[in-house]
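Problem 12. The chain below contains 81 residues. Write out its predicted structure in token notation.
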Amino acid sequence: MESDGSEFTLSRKRALRGILPFLALGVADVILLLEWGLDPLWGFMILPPILMISVLGWVAFRGGMIRNRGVEPGEDDPDGQ
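Solution.
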């Protein structure tokens, strides 16, 4: 399925806006742990899972996995797809 570049740009921006709050919370959590005086190893142990989940979420938003599946176009589908 071919699509023009503008649709992908909008989709990427939308995906970033959807994932950014979760990524910010995860990074803030790591910073808070480090400020509390925990060993930096513990703070950075939770950073890779936070980043990985953020990347997976971004891919899901960008790729269109977050929409109504199984609904025919025109039947109660708010996106019209």
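Discussion. The chain has a mean pLDDT of 76. Students who got a different answer should revisit the alignment rule from Section 12.3.
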